[in-house]
């Protein structure tokens, strides 16, 4: 029978506690006030680094990715990633730098920090006046203190920062997913509204009232989802309905035009031919060609 962990020597428990990791070892935590025109030459570290902008602006370059970092921006990069920083002439730049590692353990940092986003894989977000900013500032303060309790607090604060970044990322993912679902639902609502009002048409005010979106946003989102604007979709729906009526109802050309929202028969005929390459009668003829007797 395997001994219970709490009866073992500490060193004996490590093999069975692989899912637990050492707290981060901090090798640098300071607030840096850059002199005018300061630049950090290209380098790569053997440890992890967080860089938080307290004031000003700087251009941060990491592994081929370029970031314009401003007040509140947090950048994270991994060991061996080449990076350099350039500041703007006569622009202030104050930052907090935290460099840390997890000993010889292969720490699965990607499970805690997933920085995949449209801005780039090193940009963690903007935390101006956020608790993360306060924790980083407090960490720098305690890092200079000699007591073991201060060092222990520094490790605790950095762990809290990493966990909070993870939480923010998950909340953002859920929020983004919910927004995307809501957008899809509204786009389907627009599409159904247009289909159900093909005879009378619609105004952009109708769609704005239906969704709460602006006209430009409606057009952009609708085109992205369906490959055409709402107005183009209305024309497409009307032509498809006209084809259906021509094949099934036996109605006259004028009646079909009226059913699909065109009071001007000639205008309808021109649109149909321009969009399909043939007149409505030619379209029907292609589907009802006489077949020879067997």
TrEMBL record:
GO terms for molecular function: DNA-binding transcription factor activity; sequence-specific DNA binding. SUPFAM superfamilies: Homeodomain-like, Regulatory protein AraC. InterPro entries: AraC-bd (IPR003313), AraC_XylS_family_regulators (IPR050204), Homeodomain-like_sf (IPR009057), HTH-like (IPR037923), HTH_AraC (IPR018060), HTH_AraC-typ_CS (IPR018062), RmlC-like_jellyroll (IPR014710). It comes from the Bacteria. SMART domains: HTH_ARAC. Keywords: Activator, Cytoplasm, DNA-binding, Transcription, Transcription regulation. Residues 188-286 form the HTH araC/xylS-type domain. It holds the Pfam family AraC_binding. CDD domains: cupin_RmlC-like. This is Helix-turn-helix domain-containing protein. It comes from Paenibacillus silvestris.
């Amino acid at each position: 029978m395997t001994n219970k962990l709490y009866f073992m020597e500490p060193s004996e428990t490590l093999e069975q506690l692989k899912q637990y990791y050492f707290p981060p070892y901090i090798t640098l935590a300071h607030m840096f006030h850059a002199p005018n025109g300061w630049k950090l030459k290209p380098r790569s570290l053997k440890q992890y680094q967080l860089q938080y902008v307290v004031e000003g602006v700087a251009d941060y370059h990491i592994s081929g990715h370029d970031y314009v970092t401003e007040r509140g921006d947090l950048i994270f990069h991994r060991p061996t990633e080449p990076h350099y920083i350039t500041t703007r002439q006569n622009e202030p730049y104050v930052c907090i730098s935290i460099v840390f590692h997890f000993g010889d353990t292969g720490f699965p940092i990607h499970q805690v920090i997933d920085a995949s986003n449209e801005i780039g894989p090193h940009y963690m977000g903007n935390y101006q006046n956020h608790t993360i900013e306060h924790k980083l500032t407090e960490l720098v303060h305690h890092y200079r203190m000699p007591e073991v309790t201060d060092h222990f607090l520094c490790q605790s604060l950095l762990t809290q920062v990493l966990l909070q970044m993870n939480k923010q990322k998950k909340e953002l993912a859920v929020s983004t997913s919910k927004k995307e679902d809501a957008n899809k639902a509204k786009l389907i609502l627009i599409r159904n509204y247009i289909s159900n009002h093909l005879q009378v048409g619609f105004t952009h005010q109708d769609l704005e009232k239906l969704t709460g979106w602006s006209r430009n946003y409606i057009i952009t989102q609708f085109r992205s989802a369906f490959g055409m604007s709402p107005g183009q979709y209305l024309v497409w729906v009307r032509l498809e309905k006209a084809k259906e009526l021509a094949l099934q109802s036996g109605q006259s050309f004028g009646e079909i035009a009226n059913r699909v929202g065109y009071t001007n028969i000639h205008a309808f005929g021109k649109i149909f031919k321009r969009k399909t390459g043939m007149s409505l009668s030619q379209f029907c003829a292609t589907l009802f060609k006489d077949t020879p007797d067997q």
